[in-house]
Design brief:
This protein has about 290 residues and is of the alpha/beta class. The chain has eleven helices and 13 strands. Strand 9 and strand 10 form a beta hairpin. Helix 8 packs across helix 9 and helix 10 packs across helix 11.
């Protein structure tokens, strides 16, 4: 039987150059969506999916991530003294979400290289991989995307990735999967290509920032040569993995909020702001005035 998925890896070592100058001092993963940093949403999704242990792959300048999830006794005492019980409860909940571990990636070498740093942490278990600069949401009542992927792997074995259809002009930005549907929404991959030209793409189904991977991926990462940009591409290793064990894709019903560029970051803040009970109504009225 396939073991339960209880570990997750969150790569968060990238420089975030598209957000300079702010990303020189503030990790892009710590940029806020209203009042929570992006990476907290990612961790909360992992925890809601049954994850108990998380490894964050970080680099120089990312200490703020560690500080955010670390205990802050002095701040707790200050909040308690001032009777700010709601803020105190939110802080304590944040610090007890999961067991969070850290490893440094000293030099940027692509997503595949970042995943290699998780080998010891993962051991021989399947694990979730969640990109630290992307929030993925589902409809109310639906399971988190990571949990849906874990369900596929725990049932069928192998690995599974989240998929969303993109327009033809955007396939060159993503890893693209082609294959055959084996059950509603679940595709068994026969092709997996990193950032293909539109005319060479096997489909328009793009990997959407969430994976549950077999530990066998490390063997194939070791055998994979650097690809585009001289980086070790996870997609290339997964394409080789398909020959040894099943690789599935899951078309999920939800929304991807990619915080990797300024426009999508602003859109995501508006989206999450409108959903808030405390500010949503006022924000909606303000936006009507701006648009008008």
């Amino acid at each position: 039987m396939t073991p339960l998925v209880r570990k997750a890896v969150i790569p968060a070592a990238g420089y975030g150059t598209r957000f300079l100058p702010i990303s020189k001092a503030v990790p892009k993963e710590m940029l806020p969506l209203v009042d929570k940093p992006v990476i907290q949403y990612v961790v909360e999704e992992a925890v809601a999916s049954g994850i108990t242990d998380i490894l964050m792959v970080i680099s120089r300048g990312k200490r703020a991530i560690e500080e955010h999830f670390a205990p802050a006794v002095d701040l707790e005492l200050e909040l308690e003294a001032k009777g700010k019980t709601a803020e105190l409860e939110a802080l304590r909940t944040l610090q007890s979400l999961a067991r969070i571990h850290y490893v440094w990636q000293p030099k940027m070498g692509g997503l595949g290289d970042a995943v290699r740093y998780a080998r010891t942490f993962v051991g021989d278990e399947p694990f979730a991989l969640l990109l630290g600069d992307t929030v993925v949401t589902t409809k109310p009542g639906d399971k988190p995307v990571t949990r849906q992927l874990a369900d596929v792997v725990e049932r069928h074995g192998g690995s599974c990735v989240a998929l969303q259809e993109v327009s033809a002009d955007k396939v060159g930005r993503y890893g693209i999967m082609g294959g055959e549907e084996v059950q509603a929404g679940v595709i068994r991959a026969t092709q997996f290509v990193e950032k293909p030209r539109p005319e060479e793409a096997p489909s328009r189904l793009a990997v959407s920032a969430r994976y549950v991977l077999s530990p066998a991926i490390f063997q194939f990462l070791d055998q994979t040569k650097p690809g585009k940009g001289g980086e070790l591409q996870l997609t290339d290793a997964m394409a080789a993995l398909m020959a040894a064990e099943p690789l599935f894709g899951l078309r999920f019903d939800g929304q991807r909020h990619d915080i990797g560029n300024k426009l999508d970051f602003i859109k995501a803040n508006v989206h999450f702001g409108l959903e808030r009970e405390d500010i949503g109504g006022a924000l909606r009225e303000w936006l009507k005035g701006v648009v008008g």
